[in-house]
Description:
Strand content: 15-25%
Helix content: 25-40%
Largest sheet: 7 strands, mixed
Strand order of the largest sheet: 15-16-17-14-13-19-20
Number of helices: 16
Number of strands: 23
Bound molecules: NADPH dihydro-nicotinamide-adenine-dinucleotide phosphate
Shape: globular
Amino acid sequence: MKTTMPQIAGRRADLFVGGDWRKPAAGRYFASYDPSAGAPWYEAADGDADDVDAAVGAAAAAMQDPAWRDITQTRRGDLIRRLAELIDENQESLAQLETRDNGKIIGETRAQMNYLPQYFTYFAGLADKIHGEVLPINKTGMLNFTLREPLGVVGIIAPWNSPLSILAAALAPCLAAGNAVVAKPSEHTSASTLALAELCMQAGFPAGVFNVVTGYGESAGRALARHPGIAKLAFTGGTDTGREVAAHAAANLVPCSLELGGKSPHVIFDDADPARAVNGVVAGVFAAAGQTCVAGSRCFVHARVYDDIVAQVAARARAVRIGHPADDATQLGPLALRAQREKVERYVQHGLDEGAKLAAGGGRPGIEGDGWYFQPTVFSDARNDMKIARDEIFGPVVCMIRFSDEADLIAQANDSVYGLAAGVWTRDIDRALRFARAVEAGTVWVNTYRSASFVSPAGGFKASGYGKHNGVEAMREFTRIKSVVIDHSGRDHDAFVIQLK
Ligand code: NDP
């Protein structure tokens, strides 16, 4: 069955709570913009604390509903597999929705929607393979086993740059582990998350297992982060918001995972294959118009090949086909938000003020209409201590930094508050491994970049956050362990002394 959500254009979209669509408590809606036109294209419900409360209540009820509480893990996997099939059937419409909503090029949203069914299928398979253990307890006549239980109601707060993929990174393991979810998409990109709610309903998940409260971060997002009924928060977004969300989780004494920003070092040694390395740098920073957390935005190049590599990267940047994101030929679409383009423009000015030179781009391309486009931009003669190399710009801007010594390179690569990802291009395996061990980053790519897999644990260090998505680790993070200790010896206990033997 095809989802009806593509007809969201020009309509008002409601909240999804307790297995049904419902109007926001306060009756307010807000406009969501199409970045390629700079114009509103539908209205999303402006959910507030009352709506969050209702959604958390619906999720808590689902956790007590025998249809979800007592479901076998295998059957849970079946439901997730069915959801994967439905996503597969609706790939094209979901890709169109996201491209319209956040301006990401259709080639990339198609690739992401093609990957999502595999992602859910992987966790569907894991649903009945994560379990407790029988432990060799150091007492005779006793049995100790552990149960791996779901945590309860999980709040998932997602950003606008890859709405469904980032949601799925938490949602798939979270559902596989048996939790119920309240999701808060970014106010800028609600459409695909609402479409997913419809697919969850079609897949047959019991009412309340997946709920969506759209709305603003400061109202709906904050209300969700603070809600005492939440057992865990899975947050992806900016570092400052992450700090606030973590503080709410701490106040409620619940765990949280934080997938935050990055300023990833991308290194080219003088023995690298230049064509592959340049391709990696271009794809690593200009994909999604630079709006990816792992963008390789600090590009360190060995002095011996620096001028040549900068010239090649700049030439490739100038040749990028900028255009409407729904056009198959487009390589770079608009930025997702008007404010994001203004932020990028401020950083480009900072870079020039600090003495970096523009080797390519630096301004708005001459594209007709009011879309929020920006040229792929290459700064040469950048230094790691410049603001453009320290702050996450989250736009199509790369800082080309010269280095000549490996130890100094590693010191510079690690001289960042962030620690999300890193890349290195070299034919020397010893050097690649030295770099991989020394660099402070949750993911290290060697002779490749931005290569993701559902089996490969990912997540940042330092100000890039904590917690892992992907792989078995991700699913364990959505469970808690209960230890059950049984005395089958029949002996009596000393009532007043703890049983240590
Ligand atoms: P924000 O931190 O502003 O927003 C992320 C989410 O949090 C949105 O849903 C937002 O809602 C919500 N939010 C905002 N304020 C609050 C609050 N006080 N309490 C609770 N929730 C809140 O980030 P951006 O949307 O600007 O996303 C870009 C950032 O996300 C970048 O810094 C990027 O690096 C990071 N990111 C990290 C990734 C990773 O995997 N490490 C992946 C993708 C992005 P609303 O949008 O409605 O304000």
